[in-house]
Specification:
Length: 573
């Protein structure tokens, strides 16, 4: 029997779904099928991590930068704009401060009415499958445009595209004729009848075929919402909440039964997601059915301190290029993150615990902080060698109002934010995180002290003609020189050893994680609080690439299905 022709389904403004068929000769007995979208609509909303949303400059800052440095476009941050991104390598700290300024940037959203929109948002192209609201058999260009309208092009698609397309395809092709589709039963990302423990889950039950058939009676359009990651995550939560309500209203206006969304987050987007359901920020708990977090720094990460002090890390050709783009020195990173409330909220919070910043000499611990409050003891101290902020690195552009006092105010705002969301997790929370011995993270950060470098007063120490003496309280050690690249030279502050210098550098990371977020110190916080329905502890991926991992993708579709099953009333007859 000839397979039936699948007709294009349209949704009119009043919600009516129609399809058009053409007459054929009597000899042609092939049938036609019209696939009707389910009336129940459950949008999936993805929230990316820091640096995962594309930003554009205001007209005023664009004009200023064109005059001062010859910049001929309004791109602030768009990693897939290759030449513009590579140009960041040569940017000075002052230029970075002005290009990545929370007060002069906004999310670079797709607007088809603006000339050149498709060219600018060409990072989303050749989309394999998007189930759209007015056509099912879209031409390639139309599919790309629908994906862009759903926000896919305002996020780092090269990093997140696999997740978005997997969710769009899998969630909207669950069952056919009452049977599960092959993507759910076979292949590296299949999620049917798989025990969560196979993905590293700490409990929960497998998704059965009956459950899949139940939740298949819904349409799951996948959206992405970018946010200005330079600004406070609390402020971003308010913006994202408004857009979620706009998405829901859009489908309601088309006469679909749409009342709640399911949120999926990555990295810092998890903090935005938690703030979404906090009454002081997003206050959107009434329209969110559940949240799936990936690689979330739940209570911060010590890597934030390290990067502000000495720059980003990276190995190999790609890693070396990456760190030069985002900032391979303390001055480059400080000029951006010290002025970015969102970035400061990635530092270890009080819930991260005590004694994570250390100093050692020949394996002997010399310093261990904080004892209680990292904001008071580390982040806002001004006269200690281990301080977070180097004042002269904060405002290289000499921007009015960007003095170091404002940085300290932002740090105390970060403390307030973390205290507010400390126990805030959606009741239907699922999460995946890395606990990989091959992707070590800084759970604790150790300044290792020892002989001074050869050209920094250490020649005698290195050749043995001078014995190194380090004494006095570490609180009184004094900075002689800070390269901003990991090399600092200190004196111990005692009269006895006056003039003698010694060196210090940050030791390599030593704790299980994903290269950025340590599993025990941070990622497991919702587990310790008993706030996660299932936590998937996994290996095999680096922080930014977590959603490129098949186990993460499979466990995410499993979690979404379980949330849908629990959060809505279904007709099972």
């Amino acid at each position: 029997m000839t397979a039936p022709q699948i007709l294009a389904t349209r949704v009119d403004a009043d919600g009516t779904q129609t399809a058009q068929a053409s007459s054929t000769p009597c000899a042609d007995q092939s049938g036609c099928e019209m696939h009707v979208l389910p009336l129940r609509t459950i949008p999936i909303v993805f929230i990316p991590g820091i640096m995962g949303s594309n930003l554009r400059l205001t007209k005023e800052r664009t004009a200023e930068l064109k005059k001062s440095m010859g910049k001929d476009n309004d791109i602030s941050w768009r990693p897939e704009a290759t030449m513009e991104t590579l140009a960041m390598i040569a940017k000075t700290p002052a230029q970075r401060q002005l290009i990545l300024d929370p007060e002069a940037t906004s999310v670079d959203r797709y607007d088809l009415s603006v000339a050149g929109a498709d060219k600018r948002h060409a990072n989303v192209g050749d989309v394999a499958y998007v189930r759209a609201e007015d056509k099912q058999d879209l031409a390639a260009k139309e599919r790309d445009q629908y994906a862009r309208k759903r926000g896919w092009s305002e996020v780092f698609f090269q990093s997140y595209g696999k997740l978005l397309q997997t969710l769009e395809s899998s969630l909207n092709q669950m069952c056919m004729d009452g049977r599960a589709q092959s993507a759910w039963t076979n292949g590296p990302r299949h999620a049917l009848n798989v025990e969560p423990k196979d993905w590293g889950g700490n409990g929960g039950a497998a998704l059965t075929e009956a459950e899949l058939q139940t939740v298949s009676d819904a349409w799951y359009p996948v959206h992405a919402i970018g946010y200005n990651w330079l600004r406070s995550n609390g402020e971003s939560a308010k913006d994202v909440a408004q857009r979620i309500r706009e998405i829901i209203k859009y489908y309601q206006d088309l006469k679909f039964d749409c009342s709640k969304v399911i949120v999926v987050t990555h990295s810092m987007g998890g903090l935005v997601g938690r703030a979404l359901v906090h009454p002081e920020y997003g206050n959107a708990q009434d329209v969110i059915a559940g949240i799936v977090h990936g690689a979330m720094p739940a209570v911060g990460a010590a890597a934030g301190y390290k990067r502000i002090r000495v720059g980003f890390e990276g190995s190999g050709m790609v890693g070396s290029i990456f760190k030069k783009i985002v900032g391979d020195t303390g001055p480059k990173v400080t000029a951006v993150l010290a002025n970015a409330p969102g970035g400061l909220q990635l530092l270890p919070s009080e819930r991260y615990g005590t004694d994570w910043l250390k100093a050692s000499l020949d394996g002997k611990e010399m310093l261990s902080l904080p004892k209680a409050d990292p904001y008071e003891e580390i982040y806002t101290v001004q006269d200690k060698w281990y301080r977070l902020i180097t004042p002269e690195w904060v405002n290289p552009a000499l921007k009015e109002g960007a003095e170091v006092e404002r940085v300290y105010a932002s740090l105390f705002d970060a403390r307030k934010f973390h205290r507010n969301i400390a126990e805030t997790y959606h009741p239907q929370t699922y999460l995946s995180y890395g606990a990989d011995d091959k992707q070590k993270a800084w759970g604790e950060l150790v300044w290792k002290t020892g002989k001074a470098p050869f050209l920094r007063g250490g020649a005698g120490q290195l050749f043995g003609s001078q014995k190194l003496h380090i004494g006095g309280s570490t609180e009184n050690w004094q900075t002689v020189f800070d390269s901003g690249e990991g090399e600092i030279i200190l004196k111990d502050g005692t009269a006895e050893h006056d003039g003698q210098q010694f060196g210090a550098h940050i030791a390599d990371p030593a704790h299980l994680g994903d290269g950025t977020v340590p599993a025990e110190r941070s990622a497991q916080d919702p587990v310790r609080q008993g706030k996660a329905q299932i936590a998937y502890e996994q290996t095999g991926y680096e922080h930014q690439d977590s959603y490129g991992n098949d186990k993460v993708l499979a466990s995410t579709t499993h979690a979404i299905s379980k949330i849908a099953l629990q959060a809505f009333t279904w007709d099972t007859h």
